[in-house]
Specification:
Elements: H1 2-28, H2 96-99, E1 105-108, E2 115-118, H3 121-127, E3 132-134, E4 140-142, H4 148-174
Length: about 180
């Protein structure tokens, strides 16, 4: 009798473990291949590119690695890692000297003729190389966020010059 109980207990534990592991895999693994190259909800997990041919709503999204968007991106805000403890070798960047070497341009996009404005990556690269990346195909990309710091410093430098000129004008007025 003891031997039957022991075998029965072993069979129950084995069945419970098998069922538990099966349920755990069912919750974590993809349930099926994407239909017609479209990823079913929830998006399948894997290392192969997947395409969603309709809207996708995500409450929170973290992307690790490169991301390419061929259309427009609309958002209420973009936040960039900027905490001091994430940085080293912090120093004030050039302002007016750097900005005066940049050229703002208006242009039409080759792909669809849409009018736009911006800068030319090759020109920015000569002035602020850290703001330009070169893709595998040789196309250059500008990280426009890196242009903000020099613009801030340029405005501060100009304001300082304006204040000095105001003071000089006031001095001339009062010395008459």
């Amino acid at each position: 009798m003891h031997l039957i109980t022991s075998h029965l207990l072993t069979a129950i534990v084995t069945a419970t473990l098998f069922l538990g592991l099966s349920l755990a895999y069912a919750w974590t693994g993809p349930s099926a291949a994407p239909p017609n190259s479209n990823v079913s909800a929830p998006i399948n997990v894997g290392t192969v590119d997947q395409v969603k041919n309709a809207g996708l709503a995500v409450n929170a999204l973290a992307v690790f690695g490169g991301t390419s968007v061929t259309g427009n991106v609309t958002a209420a805000g973009f936040f960039h890692s900027s905490d001091l403890h994430l940085k080293k070798n912090v120093r004030t960047i050039g302002g007016l000297d750097l900005v005066s070497q940049l050229r703002g341009v208006s242009f039409d996009w080759e792909k669809d003729g849409t009018a736009s404005a911006g800068v030319i990556a090759q020109e920015v690269e000569m002035v602020l190389p850290s703001a330009v990346r070169t893709g595998a195909n040789g196309t250059k990309y500008v990280e426009y966020d890196q242009l903000i710091a020099p613009l801030i410093e340029a405005v501060k430098e100009q304001q300082s010059e304006i204040n000095a000129l105001k003071h000089e004008i006031e001095h001339i007025k009062t010395s008459r």
